[in-house]
Amino acid sequence: EPEVTQTPSHQVTQMGQEVILRCVPISNHLYFYWYRQILGQKVEFLVSFYNNEISEKSEIFDDQFSVERPDGSNFTLKIRSTKLEDSAMYFCASRGVRGYTGELFFGEGSRLTVL
Amino acid sequence: SQQGEEDPQALSIQEGENATMNCSYKTSINNLQWYRQNSGRGLVHLILIRSNEREKHSGRLRVTLDTSKKSSSLLITASRAADTASYFCATDRGGSYIPTFGRGTSLIVHP
């Protein structure tokens, strides 16, 4: 069964460092998302991406964040200068078989720890 | 806020019992979805109900939607220890189809 894959599963970084989280969405999907979940808290929307551009973003997704789909398969989230409060589980999701109203398919997440 | 809010925050039951979780939201929606998350894992889609539907079934899951009360419920019948997980509702608002999640209900099913 097709699945969304994310790497790395866990990354530890120092405050101020750049981090890139990678995702391979399901191959025939067209809509891509990043969410994050701080430990024990709600799942928060960061950004959505369609047709090679950001379609919507939340207040969390400030200038420190960027997304890219460099090669038609990978979908990356970059945090330019990490802060302690960026420590969270980051989930990639994709959607497309039933269009933009259908269910999301999530990856297993990348746990980011900022020291 | 558009997000759904689940209630209760935590639920502990015995195997074989039914589990009911509720979700309330604030503004009109296109659809409402329920997801499950095992500890430390990704979210898995369970069921989607559209704003013009009132009830939907999938196996041991039953979802209802009352748009007049802006609420939904998820019923898991004959629960099993393997149902232990967090359950989230996700709603999207009229002009945006971005699912927005609540804080979830943590369900523990004791064998």
What does this molecule look like?
The complex is a heterodimer of chains A (115) and B (111). With 115 residues, chain A is mainly β. In chain A, 0% of the residues lie in helices and 50% in strands. Chain A has no helices and 11 strands. Chain A has strands at residues 5-7, 10-13, 19-24, 31-37, 43-50, 53-57, 65-68, 75-79, 88-95, 105-106, 110-114. In chain A, the strands form 2 sheets. In chain A, strands 2, 4, 5, 6, 9, 10 and 11 form a 7-stranded mixed sheet that branches. The radius of gyration of chain A is 13 Å and the shape is globular. The model of chain A has no long low-confidence stretch (mean pLDDT 92). With 111 residues, chain B is mainly β. Chain B is built from no helices and 11 strands. Chain B has strands at 5-7, 10-14, 19-24, 29-37, 43-50, 55-58, 61-66, 71-76, 85-93, 100-101, 105-110. Chain B is globular. The N and C termini of chain B lie far apart (37 Å). The interface between A and B is medium-sized, with 22 and 24 residues.
Low-pLDDT segments, ≥5 res of chain B: none
What's the total helix number of chain B?
0
Largest sheet of chain A: 7 strands, mixed
Termini gap of chain B: 37 Å
Please write the string of helix (H) and strand (E) elements of chain B: EEEEEEEEEEE
Radius of gyration of chain B, CA atoms, in whole angstroms: 13 Å
- What is the strand tally of chain B? 11
Helix/sheet category of chain A: mainly beta
Specify the structural class of chain B: mainly beta
Write down how many β-strands of chain A occur, each being a DSSP E stretch of 2 or more residues: 11
User: Helices and strands of chain A, in N-to-C order?
Assistant: EEEEEEEEEEE
Residue share in helices of chain A?
under 10%
Question: Unreliable segments of chain A (pLDDT under 50, ≥5 consecutive)?
Answer: none
